[in-house]
Amino acid sequence: MNDEVINCWYRCAYGDGVITAEQAVLIAYARGWATKNTKLIPGLMASVGLSLEECQALLPDDIFVACHNSIDNVTISGPEESITRFAEKLLNRGIFLRIVKTANIAFQ
Predict the structure, then answer these.
(1) Where are the alpha helices (DSSP H) in 1-108?
(2) Strand partners for 70
(3) Transmembrane region positions (predicted)?
(4) Are residues 26 and 51 in the same domain?
(5) What are the average pLDDT values for consecutive 10-residue runs of the chain, which has 108 residues?
């Protein structure tokens, strides 16, 4: 599992003093346990070089914006097949897109 993707939000919370080290470890454990023991459909996430509004106008119904990163970049999340088809469509139009390695789990 890609620790940088999975753990980033609570590492930031710990770094900002919002949660304790013990709480961060418990969150990491609980999320890992739930991820491993829950039957989820295969999913993907991807970074897209579009504004929030531009991306939302193009998204299929089963793909969602997981994170609004900047004025011209969002992270999307959804079923593996849908993200793959959408990625091909955007790449064919010359739009930046990079699949995020998340062990085939669409987080957020």
Answers:
(1) 3-15, 21-37, 52-58, 80-92
(2) 73
(3) none
(4) no
(5) 52 86 89 83 92 96 93 95 96 95 72
Q: How many residues does the chain have?
A: 108
Does residue 95 share a domain with residue 51?
yes
Distances, alpha carbon 73 to alpha carbons 29, 31, 54, 55, 81, in Å:
30, 26, 10, 9, 22
CB of 65 closer than 8 Å to CB of 52: yes
Q: Do 95 and 61 contact (CB within 8 A), yes or no?
A: no
CB atoms near residue 89 (< 10 Å): 13
Per the structure, how many domains does the chain have?
2
Cα angle for residues 66, 31, 24 (degrees, 5° grid)? 100
Residues 82 and 54 in one domain: yes
pLDDT of residue 87: 97
Please check whether residues 24 and 61 belong to one and the same domain: no
Give domain status of residue 105, yes or no.
no
